[in-house]
């Protein structure tokens, strides 16, 4: 998934000068995850004072499970000298997942986009311990996690162990969502991690090698060379584009006898591919795929997949049809991992589809668990839930009405506390929040009562949306959470968050809520062309956008080592082509 298309949702105060440390358990498997929940009067949105004020001179344990975007970003920015930090992940590396489609066809080598975790943590101040293992269960009641090492070879000693934590940050990412479609797990490929990309690369070559075997009929050769991508999102589209380039630039010269038998199909349940992008980009991508001979089938829902056929239901007519395939890539979304589902049951979120946090990334119904990236979502507090408290806070003279001057005194706190306000103002092309009150105020008194105030504000919550499951979101969440941990003591003495309109606690929140800043998103379309949504409603498409993609992705690499490797792979591909070896 693209870094910009693909690719951080209350926590305690943190200070690098503090002598106390916290043990944080961070769960991250691949692209990271995020959790959110709304404030309530029974539970403070930030860390309770009993925790914030705790300072026994000993470091608190911070256990980090996972090495994806959210976890790695958190570790890189955390002042590890303040905490006893432990990292647990089933993989001992960080992978630059936006380039996974490039790995599937040999445009970029797998080792060029990974950085060993131990290389990352050794550069941090303070000692960070790493354990290569899976987290099997989170015991929220006893602040403990249970893990098991996952090694293929026979090792001596127990592979199971447990760790206690003072703070847990869940960032385990997500798994592929099959929607319980029959045959998907058994007969489809996925593209969620590096192992998936390497498996796809081998299978692509296998399909061509099988197709050129003697004594096969033409129909059998066509079946082996029919590549079906289910899902027209960024991942599916990028893989289709990479595969087409691999075919046109390299494989036609290696397998000339079957070059006219290859077919690439993209199956999308919606009306358009890249439907999360600007409609101009979606249209451009469909037109380019049409010129390239990539078949795009929209309005189709896959009902089953066998080892030889994929069965679809046409939404407009309800008709069932089956098509043969040589390879199927399933790229239709994500779902919650089992360890997170079990944790959600423990804390009363079992009926939710995804783990929920508040705006400070603290998991709902917990005091010391945080979540980042794909595994969670921020349950944004609605402004109408606090509308009476906001009115009372602004009504300083207790007159029962608000003047424009009284309202202006709390405008900045409202915008900082409720991110949907700024989104609503931008979408409505309003310059200031006070513009909403002008129509509600009486002509003679220029004041508004509580009912008029509610009427003026009630549409703001319509702009409350979930953040996309992208690397960009997860990375920003990791940085935000690390900053909050580092500034614990400073913000305890000098809170920097907005006014606390509702709930227990002091007059202000310790920290400002997490605010996602969108820097744009890319969609490579093959043939040295790409499309991009850029900040400010800018849309760019074509060859120049592809070179912008090269520069951005090179700059976003986690180290100079991987940056040089990726650039050298691109250069090697331009000069020598892609490697078609089955390794």
From TrEMBL:
In terms of superkingdom, the source organism counts as Eukaryota
The cellular component terms of Gene Ontology attached to this UniProt record, alphabetical and capped at eight, are:
mitochondrial inner membrane; peroxisome
Q: Which PROSITE patterns match?
A: EF_HAND_1, EF_HAND_2
Alphabetical keyword list: Calcium, FAD, Flavoprotein, Membrane, Mitochondrion, Mitochondrion inner membrane, NAD, Oxidoreductase, Peroxisome, Transit peptide
Q: Where in the cell is it found?
A: Mitochondrion inner membrane; Peroxisome
Membrane association type: Peripheral membrane protein
Its EC number(s): 1.6.5.9
Q: Where is the EF-hand domain?
A: 382-417
**Protein name as catalogued:** NADH:ubiquinone reductase (non-electrogenic)
């Amino acid at each position: 998934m693209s870094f910009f298309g693909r690719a951080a949702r209350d926590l305690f105060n943190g200070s690098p000068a503090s002598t106390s440390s916290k043990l944080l358990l961070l769960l991250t498997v691949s692209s990271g995850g995020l959790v959110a929940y709304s404030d309530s009067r029974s539970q403070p949105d930030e860390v309770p004072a009993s925790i914030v004020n705790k300072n026994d001179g000993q470091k608190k344990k911070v256990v980090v499970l996972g090495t994806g975007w959210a976890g790695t970003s958190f570790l890189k920015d955390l002042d590890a000298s303040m905490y006893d930090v432990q990292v647990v992940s089933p993989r001992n590396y960080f992978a630059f997942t936006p380039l996974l489609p490039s790995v599937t066809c040999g445009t970029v080598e797998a080792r060029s986009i990974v950085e060993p975790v131990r290389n990352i943590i050794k550069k941090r101040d303070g000692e960070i311990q790493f354990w290569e293992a899976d987290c099997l269960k989170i015991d929220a009641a006893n602040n403990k996690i249970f893990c098991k090492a996952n090694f293929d070879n026979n090792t001596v000693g127990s592979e199971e162990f447990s760790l206690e934590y003072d703070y847990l940050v869940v960032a385990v990412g997500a798994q592929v969502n099959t929607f319980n479609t029959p045959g998907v797990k058994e007969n489809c490929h996925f593209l969620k991690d590096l192992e998936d990309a390497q498996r796809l690369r081998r299978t692509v070559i296998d399909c061509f090698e099988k197709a050129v075997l003697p004594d096969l009929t033409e129909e059998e050769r066509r079946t082996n060379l029919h590549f079906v991508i289910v899902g027209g999102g960024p991942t599916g589209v990028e893989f289709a584009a990479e595969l087409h380039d691999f075919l046109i630039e390299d494989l036609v010269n290696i397998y000339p006898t079957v070059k006219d038998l290859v077919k690439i199909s993209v199956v999308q349940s919606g009306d358009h591919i890249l439907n999360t992008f600007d409609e101009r980009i979606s249209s451009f991508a469909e037109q380019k795929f049409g010129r390239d001979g990539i078949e795009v089938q929209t309005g189709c829902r896959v009902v089953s997949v066998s080892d030889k056929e994929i069965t679809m239901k046409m939404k407009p007519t309800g008709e069932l049809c089956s098509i043969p395939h040589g390879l199927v890539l399933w790229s239709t979304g994500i779902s919650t991992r089992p360890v997170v589902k079990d944790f959600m049951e423990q804390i009363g979120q079992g009926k939710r589809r995804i783990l929920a946090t508040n705006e400070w990334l603290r998991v709902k119904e917990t005091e010391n668990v945080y979540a980042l990236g794909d595994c969670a979502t921020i349950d944004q507090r609605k402004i109408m839930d606090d509308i009476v408290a906001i009115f009372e806070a602004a009504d300083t003279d207790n007159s029962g009405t608000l003047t424009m001057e009284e309202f202006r005194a709390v405008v900045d706190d409202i915008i900082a506390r409720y991110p949907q306000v700024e989104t609503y103002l931008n979408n409505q092309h309003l310059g200031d929040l006070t513009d909403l009150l002008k129509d509600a105020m009486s002509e003679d008194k220029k004041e508004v009562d509580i009912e008029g105030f509610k009427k003026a504000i009630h549409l703001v919550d319509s702009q409350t949306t979930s953040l996309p499951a992208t690397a960009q979101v997860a990375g920003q969440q990791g940085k935000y959470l690390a900053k909050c941990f580092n500034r614990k003591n400073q913000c305890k003495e000098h809170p920097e968050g907005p006014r606390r309109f509702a709930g227990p606690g002091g007059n202000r929140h310790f920290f400002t809520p997490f605010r996602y800043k969108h820097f744009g998103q890319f969609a490579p379309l093959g043939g040295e062309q790409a499309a991009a949504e850029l900040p400010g409603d800018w849309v760019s498409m074509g060859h120049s956008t592809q070179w912008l993609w090269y520069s951005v992705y090179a700059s976003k690499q986690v180290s100079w080592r991987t940056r040089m490797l990726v650039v050298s792979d691109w250069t090697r591909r331009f000069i020598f082509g892609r490697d078609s070896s089955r390794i």
